[in-house]
Write a structure and sequence with these properties.
The protein is of the alpha/beta class. It has 14 helices and 13 strands. β11, α8 and β12 form a beta-alpha-beta unit.
């Protein structure tokens, strides 16, 4: 490995703005940022004239699959996509097969990933059956506990296991990441529709309406406010203005995805299963409202929710059997840079949403910023 590298003649995006100069990296750490003449000599020099150096981006919401889902994606192909898309750190979701829901499964995943990843990978986990394991999972590096409210019945919200997860995460300062759709209502509507033999797209969308998202988010907010008073809750892929306002009113964190910002229901009607994701794509009015909120700092993070599947799994006749999810690791940054070029958002704001904020929320030390002493993720 080259021990020292100089990146020269770059425009470097610092917290304070763009700075023309160079970055000296030693053993993977940023040792010095300064004018060319002030930098120590290095074994390797990279001339970055005409280029902007951004902090390596962080994607807080990625489904890297692998394990029994390696036919969709694995740690190698997924992290190659991340690297191609400008992400030097990704946080992997736990709904794999088998799921990341115990110390043992987490250790297995970490071991498996070690030999295959080409960018930094951190792991979200599901609440373990035995809450005693939470502390150990956090010691092993878990970045959040993910709660799929879309899979909870109302009865599940009373479980002591769930309450214990909330309590311990708050104590350990680990965020809860939340899929906020109302599982109880989804199930009721789905059962009714299936009884009538309904398997079309419009029926599917009835079970995943805006109202059902808002309802799930309200249930999550009520539970969190009742059980813990200082917890960090991060709501994934918020797709409606009303959901966003509810979350912000209560002081919690909002993530939006590029597909909910830039694609709409019209695309879903055209591309059918290929554009099916959960929560589903909404109207143009919703997408534009989310974008305005993003630009005005009411959104904390943009994450891809990269969720690849096999083409056959996306194009089924029966919409209850279509695998929801859209891949986004390679398209997120280009789409957002286009918005920068169009003058709709500043580069600084983009880096805040894709690097500074995720590093702060998920406690990723020495990441998310170009600064002396930080990791050389560029
Ligand atoms: O669209 C989605 N796809 N939403 C989820 O919550 C899960 C994800 C996946 O794993 O494919
Ligand atoms: Zn989700
Ligand atoms: Zn997801």
């Amino acid at each position: 490995m080259t021990e020292t590298i100089n990146i020269l003649n770059a425009k470097i995006l610092l917290k304070e703005g763009l700075f023309e100069g160079g970055i000296h990296i030693c053993l993977g750490k940023i040792k010095k940022i300064g004018r060319k003449t002030n930098l120590p000599k290095a074994e390797k020099n990279i001339n970055a004239k005409g280029l902007i150096a951004l902090p390596g981006l962080i994607d807080s919401h990625v489904h890297l699959r692998d394990l029994n889902f390696s036919y969709k994606e694995d740690f190698y192909t997924g992290t190659c996509a991340a690297s191609a898309g400008g992400f030097t750190t990704v946080l992997d979701m736990p709904n794999t097969s088998p799921p990341t829901d115990s110390v043992e499964k987490l250790k297995e995943k970490i071991e498996l990933a070690k030999g295959k990843i080409i960018v930094n990978v951190g792991f979200h986990a599901l609440p373990p059956k035995n809450p005693e394991e939470i502390d150990e999972m956090v010691k092993l590096g878990v970045k959040s506990f993910k709660l799929y409210f879309n899979l909870f019945k109302d009865e599940d919200l009373k479980s002591s296991m769930l309450k214990e997860t909330l309590r311990r995460s708050a104590l350990l300062n680990i965020p809860l990441t939340i899929h906020g759709e109302d599982g109880e209502k989804i199930n009721k509507i789905k059962t009714l529709l299936l009884k009538k033999g309904k398997t079309d797209l419009f029926s599917f969308l009835k079970a995943h309406s805006k109202e059902i998202e808002v309802s799930g988010i309200k249930k999550a907010l009520n539970l969190i406010k009742k059980e813990i008073n200082n917890g960090k809750a991060y709501f994934c892929h918020v797709s409606t203005l009303k959901s966003l306002n509810e979350i912000k009113k209560n002081g919690f964190l909002v993530e939006v995805t590029p597909h909910h910002l830039f694609l709409t229901k019209e695309k879903l009607l055209k591309l059918r299963g290929l554009a099916l994701t959960l929560p589903p794509l909404r109207s143009r009015v919703e997408a534009e409202a989310l974008w305005r909120k993003t630009v005005k700092s009411f959104v904390d993070v943009i994450a891809s929710d990269h969720a690849p599947h096999k083409i056959e799994e996306k194009l089924r006749e029966n919409y209850w059997e279509v695998s929801p999810g859209i891949p986004g690791l390679e398209t997120t940054l280009p789409l957002l840079l286009t918005k920068v070029n169009q003058g709709e958002i500043s580069l600084q704001k983009l880096v805040e949403l894709l690097a500074y904020n995720p590093s702060r929320i998920f406690n990723l030390k020495f990441k998310g910023e170009l600064r002396e002493g930080f990791d050389g993720d560029i």
